[in-house]
Structures are given as C-alpha cells and as structure tokens.
Amino acid sequence: MSKREDQLRKRHRENLVRGTLLSPALLTICGFLIAPLLIVLVYSFLTPGTYGGVIWEWTFDAYIQFLFERDIFDESLVFSTAYLEIYSRSFVQAIVATIACFIIGFPTAYFIATRPEDQKNMWVLLVTVPYWVNLLIRTISMLFLIRNEGPLNHGLQSIGLIDSPIQIAYTNFGVGIGLVYSYLPFMVLPLYATIERFDFRLVEAAYDLYADRWTVLFKVILPICLPGVVAGSLLVFIPSLGAFIAPDLLGGGKNLMIGNLIALQFQGSRNWPFGSAAAMIVMSVVMVALIVYTRQQTRTRIQVH
Amino acid sequence: MVEAKSSAVLIEHVVKQFGEGDRAVHALADVSLNIRDNEFFTLLGPSGCGKTTLLRCIAGFEQPTDGRILLFGDEIDELPPNKRPVNTVFQHYALFPHMTVAANVGFGPRMLKRSRSEIESVVERILKLVHMDHLADRRSTQLSGGQQQRVALARALATQPEVLLLDEPLSALDLKLRQQMRVELKQLQEETGITFIFVTHDQEEALTMSDRIAVMSDGKVQQVGTPKDIYERPINHFVADFIGETNFFDVTVEGVNGGKATCVAPGGARLAAEAVEGCKVGDTVSLSVRPERIRFSQDGAHGDSLNGVIERPIYLGTDTHYHVRLPDGVSVLVRVQNAHGGAKPVTVGDKVALRFDPGAVIMLMD
Amino acid sequence: MSKRTAKQRDLRRYPGFKAVTWACMFFLYGPIIIVAIYSFNEIRSITVWGGFSVAWYVKALNNELIQSATFNSLIVAVGASTIATCFATLAALAMQGRAFRGRDGVFGVISLPLIVPEIVSAVASLVFFVLIGIPLGLGSILLAHTVFCIPFAYLPISARLAGIEGYYEEAARDLYADGRQAFLYVMLPMLLPGILAGFMLAFIISLDDFIITNFVAGPGATTLPLAIYGLVRTGLTPEINAISTMLLLVSIFFVTLSFIIGRRRLE
Question: DSSP readout, B29-50?
C-alpha cells in the first residue's frame, strides 16, 4: 500500500533529522570522553615510561601492584596492604558520608516537603544554591573554619569549652566533614522530590489504624520513599568515592583517598598505568552501583504493574 | 426543486489505524461523509468515538491509513496542514503565550506573506467581529477563558479559510458563557458563510447549533441528519440511547401494511410502528419510544394496550417522571409535563394503560 | 481525653525535624558566611576585629595573577557554555516527541559526564590530549569544559521543551507556517527561557571547575580556581577570603537568576 510506504519513508527522514541534530553533542562526548576512557582502560595494561607516559608493552603489573609488591631482590610477589588501606579508607569515608548525609538530609527534606506551597520553592532554592557554589571555595571555607587557628577553635576556647584547639583539620574526621559538606544537597534534593510526591493520606490511614508517629515513619513513609533514598545515596556515595578536593585540602596529604592516589600517579609519581588502573577500578564500582540501581528501578516498575 | 448544495468536504471511506498487528487500534473504521458548503455540521459522540481523529485528519495533523478526503473537489489528504485552506480552533485554544492578541490573530496572514497594512486591517476587522478589538494589545496569557476563546476564533478566521474546524471549543467554559457562545458561534457562521465543522460530546450543543449532525461511535458514523431527524427518527440503539432518553421494546412483527407494521409485545399488547425497509412478518425487532410521547390512557386498560402499574414518580419541577412496571417485568419511563392541570393525577400503585403518540414508535434497524 | 495543641495534632509533624533543618542550613551556609565576614576584617586576625575594610578586596583585584586567571576563566566559560548550549539545544530538540529506538542510550551518553567521577574524567582527558598531540593550554581546557557543560545545559532546555504542549506547533502549522517558521516564531521564543537557564548553568559550572581543569591546563594557562588553589597551598590569607567571597557571590547570582528564569511559567 503506497500510503504505508509513504509513512515509512517519512519516518526514515525523521530519524535522519534526529540523528543530525544529535550528532554535535554525541560526537563531542564520544570523542572527548568515551574514547579517552577507553584509552585509559588500555593504558592500565601497559608499562610505565621513565618520565611519565607509557611504553607499549602489555602487562598486568598495574593491577597486581594494588595487592602485591615486588621484592626488589628476588622479584617475588609479597602481599602488601598499602594500597588496600587507601581503598578501604575511601569506601569507609564514602559510606559514612552517605549515612551522615541521610541522617541530616532526610529530616531536612521532609521538613521542606511539608511546608506550605509558597515557601517550598524558597527552601529548595536555599538548599540548591550551595551546591552550585564552587566546590573548591566551599572546601576552603570549611578548612578556614575548622583549622586549629580558625574561628571554631577560637570560639570554643574563648567560651571555655576547651583548653587547646581540637585537631579536626587534616584528620579523617575532617575529610568526612568535608565530604558531607560537599554533597549534602545531593541527598536532600532527591529525597525532597520523592517525599513531595508522597500521598499523605496513607499516613492518615495508618493513624486511623492506631500507629504512632515513629512507626508511621519507619513502616510507611520510608519504605515508600525508598527510591528517593537510593537515588540520594548513590548521588553522595559515587562522588565521595572518587573525591579529590576534600581529602586534598582537609586531609593534609596523609589521609589519602582514591582520588588523591590517582592524581599522584599523573603528577608526582608518574606511573600512568597504575593511575589508569586505579581509575578503572573506581569506574567499575560506579558502573556496578548504577547497574544495580537501574535493575532495581525496572524491577519495581514491573512489580507495580 | 431544491438546489443541490456543493460539497465542501467529502470524506470517502476513511480508515485510521494506530499501531500494528494485534495491538492495532482503529480510531476510524470506514467513515464516509458529505459536508455541504455553508453548513454548520457537527460531529457528535462520546469520547473515543473518533470524532476528534476525523477532525484532525481533515486539518492534516493525522494521515488517514486509507481513504480520501476532498475539499471542494480537491484531494487534500496528502497535503501537510500548512498547505490546506482549513483552519482549526483548538480545544485548549493554543494561543501563542509570548504574543499579544493582535500578533496571534495576525499570525496566519503573516505566514501567508500579506502586506503589513493588509494584516493590520484584517486583524482590526476580525477582532471587531468577535468583540475583542479593545484588547488587541493585551498579552494572550492575561485573558479570561471566554476572551481566549474568541481570540482563538478570530485567529482561525483571519485568513478566510474555506472550512473552519472547531474541536470542542466550548468545553472549558462555564454554563452561562457556553450558552452565550453557542448563539454567537451560530451567528458567526451565518454571517461569514464559512462551513463550520464542530466537534462535541454535548448533545444539547449539537442539537441547538447544527444544521446537520453526524452521530459517531467506535470509529463509525451511526447516523447523519438534521437535529430533528436524529432525535425523532433514530435508526439504531446507539443513536436512540445517546441522544436524550428513550424506551426500548423488543417485539415481533405481526403484519406489514404500507409503511406501517403491527407488532406484538411479549405481554400480548399490540403497537403500531413505522416499518423499516425490508422487515418481514415474524422478525424480532426493537422499538424506540421517547418518554414524552407516551400518555396515560383515560379509557382505562384493555386487551390490546400496554398496561402497567405506576411505580415511582420523580418530581423534577418542569415535569414528573413516572416509572411504569409492565407485567413482563419491563419498566417504562413516562415523562409528563406538570403544566397540564386537566389530566387526572396518578399515584403509586395505579393501574394505567399506555397510549403512544402517532409517529412516535420508531422501529430500529439493529 | 488529653488536650493537645494544634501543632501536636498535625499528623505530618515530627519533633526535631525542624531543628535538624535549621542546623542543616547553618551547616551549609555557616562556613561561607564566616569567610565572607572575615574578608572584611581590616587586620589579619581571627580573634580581633580590626574594623570594616575592603582592603583585601582591593589587594585581590589588583593581583595580576588573579586578574589574568579571571580573564582566562571568563574566556573559557563563555566559549564552553556557548558551544555546549548550542549542541544541547539541538540535542534536546532531537530527543523530544515520539520515543525512538536508542533514545535511552542517547540520554545515557549525554548524561555520561555527570556520572563519571571527575577525577576519572580529568585523567582520561589528559591522557587523550597527550596521545593525540593536542597541546595543553586554554584550548584543551575549553574542549574538556565543553564536554561536561553539555549535560548541564541540556537538562533545563529539555525540561522546558517537555513543558511546551504539542498543540502550539500544530496551531502554527494550521496557520500556514512551514517547519522553519513554526520553529523560529513559535517554538524558539517559548524555549528561550530554558536555553538561557541552561547557558547560565553551564557558565557557572565551567567557571567553578577545578579538578578537570587542573589536569588539562598547561603551564601559563591558569584559571581562577587553579590560581586560588595555588594560593591556598601557601597558606590561608584574608585575600583568599576576599576572592572566595567574590566568586561566591557571582555563582549565587548566576544560579539564582538561572533558577528564576527557568521557572517562569508559560501560562
């Protein structure tokens, strides 16, 4: 039927137009992000050059280096925890930051979501704005505040709560605070979005059935808002894992996280394959987290229908 | 001899299918219509019947899967909407929010590359026609619903289309405004002489405004006719039931004589109905009788008449509705105007005989 | 039956949540407000207030390194956000309407820069530029910034586009506009707030970027965040407080503006 052919031809033309419109953006990202990532993957299997860069000899050395050291005398592999420490520290920091962000973020998101309509936008704006402010500046501000000579310590000392400054900066704790400070809005906003859509008549139904406030919170509100919790957690966990600025400024060069380790390989240590391998490991964790997330999303969608 | 009016829009066996294979949905299943020039033609039906799809096919926003559409003799179903001399008044008005009223109305002439002065004079004239000239410089977002409606109308008329399509334009207005606009629209059509094709699900609107109505359901045209035809002579169950209220009787044909058929109801009563072409003795048919065409017989019950017991009167101000229960269990709705003081009032439990006005008993084709 | 106040009876209220919210706000804004306050302190002390002064601001603005760094930052930000906004607008137009095969995949690619941890993107860009032979300087920074600006510009534009009902374009076609005219006179003006919001967002993101810029900048190509980082390495000074506060205000201004413009309703 020629009408059907016409419609097919039209659809083909439409797809061609779509493709042309998409090409600048897609080519840019494919060319300048996807291709580079693939190159990094390749580099992680090569040998480091003497002054940085790579030599095109294939080896697993970069990955082995995470777990083992080569004994300089007999070339045997000795299990080493040096790098594992850095990885575990990063994981712990990221998880702790996520939990802390949730503890602070959930009540905040809930509070904002239950404000009257005209106030809501203002609150959301207030929470959003700090995120968009330069992360470097914000971290510097936090450092300024918590360092030994900073206003926090001086303030506490002047009102007599402490005698000598508490060492917060340049500790793991300081880095943790920095991470929470960096990514807190990322937890609040998805939570807010989910809670805002929550049907509060369910709460009324629960109360009608003799539940108390906290039971309602844990057994009705939280389970239904779980997608928002998961989204917010991922949005805090993933950047925290690969964070650079917070551990760099607030960790004082001692409490290295993966981000610092990677940076080091391309600046000081000049071991590009090792840095590439570390980057690939972080990417894999991120990919796994995302795949689990999207799987869960589709599964809930299938369950609902 | 009545002069045959020329055909404005001719729709020939149009089919519109969405989707493929098993999941195909037939929004239109073989629709054919002849809409005449200078006519106020209404497509009436419940939501999902295909009336809006048909309108969009005429406008050019949908392409028929099969069939042809002709505009004053020219095939238009291959043309894109901007090449058809047909304009639409959208259900949600679709006034361009970033333009003033004047800019909206002048948009069509502007696209047609008319001169600046020509556009200005057309805009002024049309706005005066819809009584909106004093708001020409207002932003379209600052208008009330009724005002937006008029601007949408003006915008569609500014390029003097051959046919004007209206997609449920009054549905968002409140009752008083709607009634007012019905009158104004009808006047507008008569003044401009443009063919109006009007889509609605509101039967009162269709009956009051149209020259002819096409009743649609499930993608098919059920009946085409004047409002009087549609109401007084429905041809099938759907039309009889969709327009106003009616009573259905399942009967058997006893005899056919000339244009009349005598039918026998299950209880033994006899009814005379207008015979439908091709009906034979022994056929089981359905009859439709409007509630206001039924009277309570003063003579009392007798063998051949339909007898029943009054069940529940419902008082409605202007009339009273009576439910009459027949011996075979069927309930008949009778509507009696409360103005008549002469007739003997009936109450619950009364036995009555039902008498039908001549010509009120219609035989249905299905 | 015990009497309870209206507040206690409000089913949605949880004790303590309000306090946590205020604490959260203090936490978020506290450090930067304190930095701003101290930037006006005449003398270089935490404990003593020497009087209100903008001396540090003057010093910061006269700093040649800061001046050239700001200039570089602006060039890169304007360039990257302009290109990114153009690409993102085209992409958003392509993605609208009927779903097509691969649409989710395309959206994944467009959002990729948001998903990949910045340090990984930074390293990948560096490695790529060196391999291909692109010299590290303002040009390489511009390229890298364009990549991550695209999704930031895309999101407000796409959101705005989704909010525009289909019948506007139909009405334009009905009134004899061809594709080009319908787009130019109807769609584009309605889309404009989204495009502006996207541009401003991309601009700020580029201006603020540190990690990626740090890796792909060559010697001599310093942007403002890089310069600030260098200063911090040598010690925190009130000058840094002044620069931080200024950059802060610029960011807040642009983001709020973008938010307001993006939210302007159609009806």
Answer: EEEEEEEETT-EEEEE--TTSS
Q: What is the pLDDT of residue B341?
A: 62
Is A291 within the bounds of a domain? no
| Residue A212 forms part of a structural domain | yes
Cβ within 8 Å, pair C185-B90 = no
B221 strand-pairing partners: B216
Does B41 reach chain C within 8 Å, measured CB to CB? no
Residue carrying the six token digits 């001599």: C220
Measured in angstroms, the CA of B64 and the nearest CA of chain A are apart by 9
CB distance B38 to B22 below 8 Å: no
Question: How far apart (Å, rounded) are the C-alpha atoms in residues C230 and C237?
Answer: 12
Which of C9, C11, C34, C27 lies closest to A103, judged by CA? C27
Q: Tell me B4's DSSP state.
A: P
- DSSP code per residue over B199-241: EES-HHHHHHH-SEEEEEETTEEEEEE-HHHHHHS--SHHHHH
Are B247 and B332 contacting, i.e. CB atoms less than 8 angstroms apart? yes
Cβ-Cβ contacts under 8 Å for A22 (sequence gap 6 or more): C90, C91, C94, C95, C106
Residue A141 lies in domain: 82-270
In-domain check, residue A2? no
Give the chains touching A; criterion: ≥3 Cβ pairs < 8 Å. Answer: B, C
- Averaged pLDDT for residues B34-44: 94
- Does residue A174 lie in a domain region? yes
CATH number for the domain that contains residue C80: 1.10.3720.10
Q: What is the mean pLDDT of residues A130-144?
A: 86
CB B138: neighbour CB atoms within 10 A? Answer: 15
HSE, CB side, 13 Å, CA atoms: give it for residue B63: 12
CA dihedral (A267, A273, A278, A284) positive or negative = positive
C120, C257, C265: best to mutate for the A interface, most A CBs within 10 A: C120
Q: Number of structural domains, chain C?
A: 1
Structural domains for chain B: 7-240 (3.40.50.300), 245-363 (2.40.50.140)
pLDDT in tens, A185-224: 889 988 998 888 888 888 788 878 877 878 878 888 888 8
Average pLDDT over residues B229-235: 92
In the numeric block, which tokens belong to residue B298?
């003063």
CATH of the domain at A213: 1.10.3720.10
Domain count, chain A: 1
pLDDT band at residue A45, thresholds of 50, 70 and 90?
Answer: confident
Q: How far apart are CA B187 and CA B209, in angstroms?
A: 10
Distance CA A190, CA B19 (A): 36
Determine the 3-state secondary structure of B12 from DSSP: strand
**Is C10 an interface residue toward B (CB < 8 Å)?**
no
What is the distance, to the nearest Å, from the Cα of residue B241 to the centroid of all Cα atoms in its chain?
A: 13
Interface test with A, best of B14, B63, B69, B75 (most A CBs within 10 A): B63
Residue A121, token pair as written in the block: 């936008």
> Looking at the domain assignment, is residue C183 inside a domain?
yes
* C211 part of a folded domain: yes
Q: What residues of chain C lie within 8 A of the CB of A286, using their CB? A: 115-117
Residue-range definition of the domain harbouring residue C203: 56-263
Q: What tens-digit pLDDT sequence spans chain C (267 residues)?
A: 455 566 555 767 788 888 899 999 999 998 888 888 888 887 777 777 777 878 888 888 888 888 899 999 999 999 999 999 999 999 999 998 777 788 888 998 999 998 899 999 999 999 999 889 888 888 899 999 999 999 999 998 998 898 898 899 999 999 999 989 999 999 999 999 899 989 988 998 999 899 999 999 877 789 999 999 988 888 878 888 888 888 888 888 887 887 788 776 543
Question: pLDDT value at position C267?
Answer: 37
Contacts of C251 by beta carbon, 8 Å cutoff, 6+ apart: A132, A133, A134, C204, C207, C208
